[in-house]
Amino acid sequence: MTAGGGFSRAAGALDEIKFSAILRALSLLFRSRSAVDRSFRARTREKKGIAQIRTRDGRVARYFVFSGKDVRTHAGLHANPDAVLTLETASLGARLMMPPINWLEQVNAQKNFQLTLDGPEEFACWFVQLIMAAARVPWPVGEAMMDGSRRFTSMTNGGPCHVWVRDGRIVRITPIDLTAEDGPSWAIEARGKRFVPPRQATISPHTLTWKSLVYSPDRLLHPMKRIDFDPHGERNPGKRGLSGYERISWDEALNIVTSEIIRLKSAHGPSAITFNHPAHHNWGNIGYWLSSLYRFANLVGHTKVNHNPDSWEGWFWGAMHHWGQSMRLGTAEPYSTVEDLLKHAEMVVFWSSDPEATNGLYGGQEGTVRRLWIRELGIPTVHIDPYLNNTAAFLGGKWISPRPGTDTAMALAIAYIWIQEGLYDRDFVRRRTEGFETWKDYILGYTDGVAKSPEWQQEETGVPARTVRALAREWGRKRTYLAAGGWGNGFGGAGRAPTGVQWARSMVCLLALQGFGREGVNFGNLQFGTPIDHTFWFPGYADGGISGDLTNTGAAIALYQRMPHLPTMNSVQQQVPRMQLPEAILTGKAEGFPRDGRSIGGQFAKIRYPAPGASPIRMIYKYGSSNFGTMSGSNRYVEMYRSPNLEFVVNQSIWNEGESRFADIILPACTSFERWDISEWANMAGYGHHGHAQVNHRVITLQHKCIEPLGESRSDYEIFYALSRKLGLGALFSEGMDELGWVQRMFEASDLSKKITWRRFLKRGYYVVPPPSPEHRPPVAFRWFYEGRPKDTPEPSPLASEYAGQFRNGFQTQSGKFEFECQSLATYDPHDEERSPILKYQRSWEGYHSERHERYPFQLITPHPRFSFHSHNDGKSGFLNGVRDHRRKVGNSYYLVLRINISDAIERGIQENDLVRVYNDRGSVICVAVPTARLGRGMVHGYESSARYEPIVSQAGIIDRGGSLNTLTSKRPMIANSHSIAASACLVDIERCDLAEIEAAFAESTVCR
Fold first, then answer.
1. Is 147 a catalytic residue?
2. C-alpha span between 227 and 245 (Å, rounded)
3. Full DSSP string of 498-550
4. Would you call 385 helix, strand, or coil by DSSP?
5. Residue 115 in contact with residue 106, Cβ under 8 Å?
6. From 63, 416, 481, 541, the catalytic residue
7. Any bridge partners for residue 858, and if so which?
């Protein structure tokens, strides 16, 4: 006992000496860094106060005196320090403060209160961040160029780029050209040819708009308060969208926001607050809404807005029930389909698929060269779309134009021919599917007396029966890839329309008849499925970043284990379906179904708002501005914002557009070019595995802070951190880290740190992951299923509990097979006419045969935009205004282009560049007309996701000239038993407008902005 006790005392004394030495070294580090690093020296002068570091028993202690001019340190305890950092023991202090930091031990110490921080948040959190910053070596950032500029890197929704800066200002943005240092590219040998992708990151056009967006005159540069909003008096909610704003200080803005949070939580509980964010944001793993916003929102507590499965709608609510894929929201796995298609496919059918316009999702123009290869190989293409889209125009081939919403009738007629003429894979259907005979009886008309023949579909689609019969025969006799939606393996396209559920179901049923997974038969349009290395681990933006949210992000899959950080959890159980948010505010009631990718059956657990014992929503924290341009029936948001039920609205945005004008307080955020971050191109892991399979080279970037934030704008992280400090949550939110500290922490947690040093990464700004050798490429998607083997594609889904039989054997369905007759739907509601267990054709409730067609004879098609990424790059006085296929200037405003069939235009006296009012009973939008032969009669076409919402109130209701076509779409879900947006098609009428009358109306009438 005595010997053991003596050893323990000796070890304790040694720990005290070690910890004392570390604290002494910290004081020297402050001094040396201040001497050589001007920015660090300025940082030490930001605050005045005394900070103490000590053990709990006080045996080891040192305090730091910040005078605003210099830093002085002394050993021992100060009688009255402003902030105190306490460690349980000297041993713990020595371990935690000796680099490299053991983050797991530090997190555990914080959880167990062995590491505590006390004192005023502003000073205490600043001191801890200063310690972290002092330990960071100030290596050179970016590369000096011969023209006197400095070249940085960044990442956007359209890909990685170089950012050239001179005198603190961005001078140009360019694609990244790969060098010899970046290693080789992959190559594919197919049919006697060798295909190698370009040695460049071929970004989307909208990436190149960012210079004009950063310096847009529409930037929000200062905190603002609505002039007739008084948090202590009359709030005037009915004036939102009408009133002007006055500039206020950051301190006043933060005080108002935090006071409202405290007031509402004290009076009603945290369920009175909700955070409403868009589906996408400025790129980056630290600053993304799934990261910083979720961390802050969870710490505050809130009613969660449950998002519908944007753009996956038809696949999630429909196709999933046939084959599972729930963790891909019902879409197909993509692996190695590029190589399989080039080697084995004999035809490609693009069905509602326009990757040349939408770039897949985040994929830049990477797929363009690959689609050129199929033209080089002479592989024929067919394009099925009401609009002769950009991909069809680019590749050529056969164009078939069904009436919008009738695609499923055509699909059933194709299946009819295959069944009648034996042009399907009987062996696959027998071995790997269930329920075929039931569906076959419906197709052949045995169950309802209507054979789904090409002649039958002609009445529905307007496509001649001979055309469909010829297509079915050619398809059935050739190994064919089906490019369904923008990705080719699902997503977007007709899956966003009122009939999206049945269309997505028809796509998987057709390819099941052809035996998907065999050579040359699969889903794809060469947008997904490149032979890149999937074993190199780097987190995607939906992996949760710094959120600590293990429930609503993909953090639990890998990131949380690799980068330990304090977990966060929202204590509020109440949720509100996003598409019903206006109704929830206005009526106090809402219902919907959840987006839950863990299982097939998760989507059946109905959400009911309000939840028992919870407060109705009284405050909206709006993050970004997109509802008017991207949500259906979006004029209803005006009424929502003006409701007296909504006591407070704060908007955190970069630009003064859309919903920022309906806020009480506006917090100006900076762009991703004005803050630090880290990310990978197209990596959306957490939503779906291996989104980077869209690109030709895996590019991971350090998103340099290229310039200082303009005006008084701040990064999202800094805004949430400032609010957290005022709420006493600063240390919990930041863990003592600034943005660059979190970036380095994520770098070290990933495989990146094994391949490139932090110093080199800071300077160069990006790393390209080498491709695997051909023998180590991923197996072809679904080959395992076709051949009846255990799953061998590189994704950790479905969850083990979702397999009916042996783990990795078969699909996620109850039978483990592809189900033509869906057991999950039969169990939930076998009598649901909108979504029956077998796929049946239902006419669109907003289509050619509906009652509304008599009043509104034009079908408006609103696909994802070609030139902007949703609302991100539109408007803002950016250079996209000069793209004539996007907007055109008429008079004093830039109007969104609306395409109309030439014959329809002549009948209505509409000429090119005329202003037209496109309208229905939901609203009116002023556009500029472009007559075209690329549309059939009775159709008009305009891209959705306008960033501009510029409405007036008139006798005709709300008229918008900003181009927000989603004000015309229906709030109705695709099917009743879903929470879905049917935003890509609606019925409208169209009439020519007089420019002078329009400009006079907007000059004189009541403006909602």
1. no
2. 5
3. TTHHHHHHHHHHHHHHTTTTSTT-EE--SSS-----SSS----GGG-TT---S
4. coil
5. yes
6. 541
7. 988
**Do 971 and 579 meet the contact criterion of CB atoms below 8 Å apart?**
yes
- Location of structure tokens 């291996």: 690
Q: Please give the structure tokens belonging to residue 325.
A: 């894929």
Burial of 474 (0-12, 13-18, 19+ CB in 10 A): middle
Task: Enter the pTM of the model.
Answer: 0.96
DSSP for residue 301: -
Place of tokens 């603190």: 168
- Please report the pLDDT score of residue 1009 as a whole number: 44
Asked if 290 and 283 touch (Cβ cutoff 8 Å), the reply is: no
CA-CA distance, 244 to 908, in Å (whole number)? 40
Encoding tokens for residue 70?
């210099």
Q: Please, is 103 exposed, middle or buried when counting C-beta atoms within 10 Å of its C-beta (0-12, 13-18, 19+)?
A: middle
Strand, helix or coil for residue 396? coil
pLDDT > 80? residue 3: no
Largest CA distance in the chain: 105
Please, which pLDDT band fits residue 953 given cuts at 50, 70 and 90? confident
Q: Look at phi and psi of residue 422 and say left if phi exceeds 0, alpha if psi is from -120 to 50, else beta.
A: left
Report the 10 Å Cβ neighbour count for 927: 28
Q: Tell which residue, 262, 310, 503, has the closest CA to residue 981.
A: 310
Question: Are the C-beta atoms of residues 290 and 686 closer than 8 Å to each other?
Answer: yes
Average pLDDT taken over every residue of the chain = 95
HEC string of 601-615 equals: HHHHCCEEECCCCCC
Q: Is 354 a catalytic residue?
A: no
- Residue 257 makes CB contacts below 8 A (sequence gap 6+) with 650, 665, 667, 723
- In terms of residues, how long is the chain? 1009
- Which of 50, 684, 813, 580 is CA-nearest to residue 361? 684
Region of residue 580 (left: phi > 0; alpha: psi -120 to 50; beta: else): alpha
Cα–Cα nearest to 367, from 481, 485, 487, 283: 487
**Phi, psi (deg, nearest 5) at residue 975:** -135, 155
Q: For residue 621, indicate whether it is catalytic.
A: no
Q: Tens of pLDDT along 838-895?
A: 999 999 999 999 999 999 999 999 999 999 988 989 999 988 998 999 999 999 999 9
CB-CB neighbours of 194 under 10 Å: 8
User: In three state form, how does the secondary structure of 346-357 look?
Assistant: CEEEEECCCHHH
Cα separation, 412 vs 10, in Å, equals: 83
Distance of alpha carbon 633 from alpha carbon 956, whole angstroms: 16
Tokens representing 255? 């005080």
Contacts of 729 (CB under 8 A, 6+ apart): 296, 299, 300
- Residue of 310, 425, 874, 904 marked active site: 310
- CA pair distance 310, 742, nearest whole angstrom: 29
How far is residue 43 from each of residues 51, 68, 86, 133, 324, measured CA to CA in Å? 15, 10, 23, 10, 53
What is d(CA 594, CA 577) in angstroms, rounded to the nearest whole number? 7
SS3 content of the chain, % helix, strand, coil (to 5): 35, 20, 45
Confidence of residue 158 (pLDDT cuts 50, 70, 90): very high
Closest CA to 849 of 401, 405, 387: 405
At 24 the three-state DSSP class reads: helix
Nearest to 390 by CA among 941, 938, 874, 895: 941
Of the candidates 162, 280, 534, 979, the residue annotated as catalytic is 280
Say if CB 218 and CB 876 are below 8 A apart.
Answer: yes
End-to-end CA separation in angstroms for the chain: 79
Rounded Cα distance, 313 and 327, in Å? 14
